[in-house]
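DM from R.C. (forwarded with permission)

"hey, sorry to bug you on a friday — could you get me a structure for this? deadline for the figure draft is monday and I only need the backbone to look sensible"
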Amino acid sequence: MSQDAFTIFHAAKELDKLVSGAKIERINQPNKDSVVFSVRKASENLKLIVNANADFARVCVSNDNSPAPIEAPSFCMLLRKHLIRATIDAVSAVRYERIIIIYLTCRDELGTLSNKRLYCEIMGKYSNVTLVENDRILGALKTTGIDESLSRPIYPGAKYTLPPPQDKAEISDITAAKKALDKLTYADDPAKFIFTAFKGISFSTAEDIVSKFKETKRDNDFVKILKSDEFIKYFNDYYETPKISPTVVSDGKKTDFYIVEPIAQYKEVRKYPSINSLIDGYYLYKENSFATALKKGRLYDAVKAYEKKLYKKLQIAEEKLLSCADMDDNRLFGELIIAYLYKIKSGEKYCEVENYYEPDYPLIKIRLDEDLSPRENAERYFKKYSKQKKTVAAVTPQTAELKETLSYIETVYSEIDAAETDSDFSDIEEELSAIGVIKQKQQGKKRIKKLSEPRKYVYKDFEILVGRNNLQNDRLTISAERNDIWLHTKDYHSSHVIIRTFNRPVPDEVLLFASEICAYFSKVRSSKKVPVDHTLKKFVKKPAGTNAGKVYYTNQKTLFVDPDPHI
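My reply, with the result:
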């Protein structure tokens, strides 16, 4: 059930009870599509969210704590100018439209009162928020140019008009409803027909209306019954006074919501105490999931591009090393030519001499440049050997470093997968910025960064800490006490895990539990019998200059455990 006019009509009724009489104390705009009004009603502080995103549009009292930007956008500044200290008089929905109106009494700096309206249009990609006084637009979240929308201009000074009405019947108009239903035929899908013929309902609402009405009837001629006054009354009662039962449902693949008890059976069902809490919870989760997926996608793309460059560099380096495969042969040829100068004549294409470096002195055939003297041929081989030696000396450590970095990049993929919070993503961005994968945005004013927290478990009175990413792994390991126990999967990337001992002996069951956690938060969480090393933190060392999360450890013991998916 989408946010059709039916849903918005009843959501607005709830909102009216929640915020009518509240005073607006603060206004923020956390992103380009959303405005947050901090209001106070009696002794209660509330946050009213007005969102005009195409996918997450909504108006509700929310628990969202999105931080406000350092610099407020222009629309936010306009709202602050007009609506700070304003009183919310009422909230209502435009009949059969997906529009909520917030009625406001405003007081300017001189104490002069004025009445304004905030029109919140929840209409998919056409969603918008418009501030209006005396039917004139003061400003809007999304404006149009003067020439773009002559039929319905949205810009300061223009007259505000509602969207053109749909050419559909209203169920409250009995005559129009009968006329519309008379066109229903046996070939029609009843739900689809009602959705097409009547204002204010989505297809899923129409399906619910038809299905529930059908349950009360046994007459085989269902189309005939749908044309009756009885159905019109049922439809009208459903729309005006439904039995509210806010519910989020899921079939395991798709999640949806209803403000009434859904007739269909679903795999997962979650009830909410109000329409407002349903809309807030559903869209906040949906919005956060989308934002998380977007952040992960951007980081994946950046890391993938960086990884591709590394592989290209590694390919070039390995090709250089391959070209030096005959380096020792060139040195040998040079030495043998010098040793047998007395036997080699100028102008020869080849010489055949004994290789005195091997037993039995086997003959070896050496190619010569016939335009060079024997000594010059030897110098040519020595020169080639010297060049190759320098190449190998320079490229070998580069190759090792590239392989080390590529191995490290694999750990970054794992931590992107596990990232959940803004702090997690901030840590990863900082980590990637340090190695040049991304460039962090330069901000005029810097916020004090809140350090991300590790996962925490308590088992048998022992606290177990689990790093979420490489930077956090470093912080966790460095801050641990000498006699804390440090855990990591053997030969595979995993989170660093710390058992805080406070110098107490650690029972085997605690060590086993922590090892199962470590195995779960690893690259091989889907495997069985995962080897997990554990040692005292004092045996864990982090050399200067190594990548985040990279440590060396000794004195370890290994447990083989199955990852615990129920952590």
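R.C.: lifesaver. The first strand starts at residue 23 and ends at 31.
me: no worries. The chain has a mean pLDDT of 91.
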